[in-house]
Amino acid sequence: MRYIVKKVVGEENFIDMTPNKSNNFCCGGGGGFLQSGFQEQRRAYGQTKANQILATKASYCITPCHNCHAQVHDMSTVNDHAWETVHLWTLLNLSLGILGPNERAYLGEDLKEVDVFHPESAS
Fold this sequence. Notes:
By secondary structure, this protein is mainly α. 39% of the residues lie in helices and 7% in strands. The chain has a domain of 76 residues. It is built from 4 helices and 2 strands. Strands 1-2 form a two-stranded parallel sheet. α2 crosses α3.
């Protein structure tokens, strides 16, 4: 996944977390915890991941799955939107120029208008 992310965002824009790879921390949203109803406990557990993300000082956190995306996005809200949360699928489509206007909800202001196809401008 790191290879793909670096190709999509540019190696100079990639910031890895510490620890990473097999030593990385869980976001705390998987295994049914996201849907369990124990929001305070889920957020308390997820604070480890939030602190890890905050330490990178990155503007975006790229997530590979729906549970991670929902949990990491929620943690950015708890931390006063310290980062934008974006799904890897969204960035892949953005890099290909095929991300539709209605699929941009989680992009920051700096990316919301990137490669937006406007039919009225086509000739």
